[in-house]
Amino acid sequence: MTKTTFTIQELTALVTEIFAGAGLSTLHAEALAQVITSAERDACKSHGIYRIEGCLRTIKAGKVVADAEPVMTVDNSAIVRVDALGGFSSAAFEMGVSALASRVSDLGIAALVLNNCTHFSALWHEIELLTDRGLVGMAMCPSYACVAPTGGSEALLGTNPFAFGWPRAGGDPYIFDFATSVAARGEIELYRQAGKPLPEGWAIDATGNPTTDPSAALAGAMLPFGAHKGSAISTMIELIAGIMIGDATSVESLAALGSMTLAPTHGELILAFDPARFAAGHGGDPLQRAEKLFEAILGQGARLPSQRRFTARANAVTNGITLSADEVEVLNRLHSGGLSAID
């Protein structure tokens, strides 16, 4: 089947038009299109154009405020807070990131709290906006209850992603971003769409038994990565990026939505550090010292996380983003039909 290649700018414009046509304000349409196109550019298919329908379904269900104007609060503390007022998180983060960087410049460490937002995206996009400023960053958030704790039999935790970034002078940053479930829920949906069985150990069905059937997994629960270790990290995220910031846990988010076909509503916690301030007077330049560690890792034949993503990005910048005929059909259907094209 015929494939179509878009420039990054062309795909961004098309996705922006889809969201604007569905009723999002320019602020949100542009923010979401940037995030989704960045995922396609970096060959992160589970967070690319596949996510558009879920966002539109959430808009159609009235579970997100399409024209919300985030409100930022900055005081003398290390905490910057942005209330998304029921809108998508991407625009709220864009509003708060400069203030976060400013507080880090003053204090060496600061936190950005996003409240009352609808979240659908990977976290590495946000982390890169910190590493681009020479900052070390961490980000985390709950999701909706679709993961059983280790030893449990029912969904209680979210996929609860965690991301970390370290800046590198003259090179791509060191970034990892992973769900604390054994896989992202979007990955299981892609297995279902492809008619492929899941790997063993990814999920349980609605009765609590192990399954490799993606549909049964989606009706049951995923499992944490690393057994009790992933379960503990996921619980930590519920505590500090949900309860501690006064926002929803994954159970509460699912209860509010009533469906996992919609983008979840919760909060997000972003932490940023100035590595030079932390190392001041001790140990030399932290960025140079880190390069020795990265060189040692690569020297053993290992790779750094996100290397494949950065390779895909370089290719897309030069050669564009190639989509399948089915993907293009989806884009055209959503562009012409808007919310009426959504079940």
From TrEMBL:
GO terms for molecular function: oxidoreductase activity. Pfam families: Ldh_2. The keyword Oxidoreductase applies. It comes from the Bacteria. Keywords: Oxidoreductase. Belongs to the LDH2/MDH2 oxidoreductase family. This is Oxidoreductase. It comes from Pararhodobacter oceanensis.
